[in-house]
Specification:
There is one protein chain. The chain is an alpha+beta fold. The protein contains 10 helices and 10 strands. The strands form 2 sheets. A 6-stranded antiparallel beta sheet has the order 1-2-9-4-7-10. A 4-stranded antiparallel beta sheet has the order 3-8-5-6, with no helix packed on it. Helix 4 packs parallel to helix 7, helix 7 packs parallel to helix 10 and helix 8 crosses helix 9. It holds the Pfam family AraC_binding. This is Transcriptional regulator, AraC family. GO terms for molecular function: DNA-binding transcription factor activity; sequence-specific DNA binding.
Length: about 280
């Protein structure tokens, strides 16, 4: 049986970006246009669409790139239907990240696995409750991967960006439980915008501000657990959404639960706590 049609739309208010996760058995859309830049990836099946006067067939893993006001439609290109994820990037958001004249996509369909992964990660980040820094980082990764498709190659940041990165790191260290968002953090660090901050931070420390924030939260969590604090209290103190959020991050980093780590360090079992 072919799964029923479904569509899920997520709107990220701070950025204006929208994410769509959809599946269609046959016909999806008549010919239409959007004001935004569309970047998507086919998840399964064959996605058939008309764009720039020719029919395109996107298969799993291929990336779809559609400029504002480009007419296109959508339908299944084979039995079994198709599924895809798509980001609608507002013109103002893209222009803020890539100042200058409006760019253009060289092609409406391409093979770019890193960009496909970035699109999927951004859709997942927007679809679930998460830190503002995580959402911003996921969207900025999409922008970074879009650069070659828009004729905007990446350039190394100037030396003065080292100060921006250092100030941002100090802000994160001073209050790791806080979730400032990339725009606020960039302003506090003296960066022109969050895109400059992201480039400077990665050049200086080899990671994103959000990934660095998670690392210092986990280090603080280890210290508190070693001192005997219960996992639920540690999660609240360190800025994790809840105990299960701490548990997922902690297991991925250290291979055991916060409760198990606390028991190992203190000799006190955590039998009365909720699963971590």
């Amino acid at each position: 049986m072919t799964p029923p049609d479904r569509i899920r739309l997520i709107h990220d208010a701070p950025s204006g970006v929208e994410a769509i996760e959809a599946r269609f058995a046959a016909h999806a859309y008549d010919l239409h246009r959007h004001d935004d830049w569309l970047v998507g990836v086919t998840e399964s099946g064959v996605q058939d669409f008309l764009c720039r006067g020719a029919r395109r067939r996107s298969t799993p893993g291929r990336v779809i790139l559609i400029e504002p006001e480009e007419a296109h439609d959508g339908q299944a290109g084979a039995e079994g239907g198709f599924a895809y994820r798509m980001l609608y990037l507002p013109r103002a958001w893209l222009r803020a990240g890539l100042p200058g004249e409006d760019p253009g996509f060289a092609a409406s369909l391409c093979d770019d696995p890193p960009l496909a992964r970035a699109i999927g990660a951004a859709c997942r980040a927007l679809a679930q409750p998460s830190e503002r820094l995580l959402r911003d980082a996921a969207l900025d990764a999409v922008l970074h991967r879009l650069r070659p498709h828009l004729g905007r190659p990446w350039r190394a940041p100037p030396p003065r960006d080292a100060r921006v990165a250092r100030l941002a790191r100090e802000r994160l260290r001073d209050d790791p439980a806080r979730d400032p968002g990339a725009d606020a953090l960039a302003q506090e660090a003296g960066a022109a915008d969050r895109f400059q901050l992201a480039r400077a931070f990665r050049a200086a420390y080899g990671t994103s501000p959000h990934a660095y924030l998670i690392q210092i939260r986990l280090l603080r969590a280890r210290r508190l657990l070693t001192a005997g604090m219960r996992p639920a209290a540690v999660a609240a103190d360190c800025g994790f959404a809840d105990q299960s959020h701490l548990g997922r991050r902690f297991r991925r980093a250290y291979g055991l639960t916060p409760a198990a780590y606390r028991a190992l360090c203190t000799g006190v079992p955590d039998s009365g706590a909720a699963p971590a």
